[in-house]
Write a structure and sequence with these properties.
By secondary structure, this protein is α+β, with helices and mostly antiparallel strands. The protein has eight helices and eight strands.
């Protein structure tokens, strides 16, 4: 499966494009959304700016046909709404690839994460082109399945280490104890665990927002 992050410059018309540009200090996080054949329904969390003017602009926008405030404070609110123009959801539905939530919009720009077969991600890009929606690709990478991340030996030793309490705080199993428990040399256990930990940590860090691999760092090698 291919994973991609796109930054989409929303056109005028959709409520979130217009309202977020009118309130550039606010962040709109779409927590859940559903696009049908007609209107789209969503739950959005708004933070970072005085809320009342934002809610007034949302309620007054012609694309918002229904609005209900679930909770609010002076600078944040959770809002359930119905809209007649769920542009991003329509494009994703036509391409057959779901947009991962939460979806964040700020000052007219939407940062979206999608995962799917390469041809469907290409279809999503084509949908944006057809709709005249500019976008920038921040990254494209192959997503590694958990079953493919570790070798059998690494996975078995890592699970044994967890079961034995090697990663407990305080630790209830030493590396020597773990090696004896699984019947390998201490040096073998140490190297195997190190490679497993490195693979898991790299995969976790790759998914952190804003992380960019430093130039010159080593790529993951086969068997690590």
């Amino acid at each position: 499966m291919t994973q991609a992050r796109l930054v989409v410059d929303l056109p005028e018309g959709p409520w979130v494009a217009d309202v977020s540009r009118a309130h550039p200090d606010a962040t709109f996080q779409v927590l859940t959304a559903l696009a049908g054949d007609g209107p789209g329904f969503a739950l959005v969390w708004i933070t970072g700016a005085p809320i009342d003017p934002i809610l007034d602009d949302m309620a007054a926008h012609p694309a918002v046909t229904e609005l209900s405030v679930a909770q609010r404070t002076e600078r944040e609110a959770t809002v359930q709404f119905e809209t007649s123009a769920p542009l991003l959801l329509i494009a994703a539905k036509r391409a057959g690839v779901p947009i991962e939530m939460p979806l964040e919009i700020r000052d007219g720009e939407a940062t979206i994460d999608v995962t799917g077969p390469h041809d469907r991600l290409s279809a999503l890009a084509a949908q944006f082109d057809d709709l005249g929606v500019p976008f920038e690709v921040r990254y494209v990478r192959e997503r590694v399945e958990p079953s493919e991340l570790l070798t059998d030996a690494q996975r078995e030793l890592l699970l044994a280490a967890v079961d034995a309490g090697y990663y407990d705080t305080p630790r209830t199993c030493s590396l020597t104890d773990l090696a004896e428990r699984v019947g390998v040399a201490k040096s073998t256990a140490s190297e195997t665990l190190h490679r497993a930990e490195a693979a898991v940590i790299r995969e976790f860090v790759d998914d952190l927002p804003g992380y960019v691999q430093r130039e010159g760092s080593e790529e993951r090698s086969e068997g690590d």
